[in-house]
Amino acid sequence: MTRQQRRSDNTGVLTNPWWFALELGFFAGLIWGGVHGLFYFLRFTSVLPGFLAEPFFKTTYLMTQPGYYLGWLYFIMFSIIAAYLYTFILRKVPGPWLGMIYGIMWWAIIYLAAGPALYMVKPFRQLHLTTHISEFCLFLLWGLFIGYTAAFEYTDERKREPKKLLDRLKSASQE
Questions:
Q1: How many CA atoms lie within 13 A of 171 on its CB side?
Q2: What are phi and psi of 49, to 5 degrees?
Q3: What is the DSSP string of 105-140?
Q4: What tens digit of pLDDT does each residue of 156-175 get?
Q5: Beta partners for 14?
């Protein structure tokens, strides 16, 4: 077994990092892009679900139903790229914390730097507090999803979890 690949479960099958990152990014974008759309329709955020497509398409189009799905597709593509970056650079770091920091980093890039410069989002001070909190939490959980899934696959998280549970059960039965 090489350092680049990890055995999946006890089957002896090696996890291909290219396919793993593609699948991870697809589901991260599908799930959290859908949550972003839900946040928008419930008015937790004023940022359009298609905000990543904003530099390439008109806002009026992104406000339509096809524009919503196009924005979701852009979020999936963005998540695939982010998952590739995380998988090939940071996948060996155990635990959830780095994934959370990764999500916060992307939030800061999009909402404080690149987003306003590329007119994807309004400048930070023009957005409502509810939007800030919703988007921050969304990216925090999105990063956690990507980071912890990669850590779980490529570190010994899988081996430690059953041991922790077994230790808890033993201590509970001794009391």
A1: 6
A2: -60, -25
A3: HHHHIIIIIHHHHTTSS--GGGS-HHHHHHHHHHHH
A4: 655 655 666 666 667 777 76
A5: 7
- Cα Rg, the chain, nearest whole Å: 19
Distance CA 87, CA 96 (A): 14
How far is residue 133's CA from residue 112's CA, in Å, rounded to a whole number? 14
Instruction: Give the residue-averaged pLDDT of 61-72.
Output: 93
CA 105 to mean position of chain CA atoms: 11
- Are 137 and 36 within 8 A, CB to CB? no
**CB-CB contact of 51 with 131 (8 Å):** no
Q: 13 has which bridge partners?
A: 8
Q: What is the pLDDT of residues 90-124, one digit of tens each?
A: 888 888 899 999 999 999 999 999 888 888 889 99
Contact assessment for residue 101 and residue 143, using Cβ atoms and an 8 Å cutoff: yes
Q: Strand, coil or helix: what is 5?
A: coil
DSSP 120: S
Question: Which carries the bigger pLDDT value, residue 171 or residue 21?
Answer: 21
Report, in this order, helix, strand and coil percent for the chain, each rounded to 5: 70, 0, 25
Q: 12-16, 55-59, 136-140, 164-168: which has the highest mean pLDDT?
A: 136-140
- What does pTM read for this prediction? 0.80
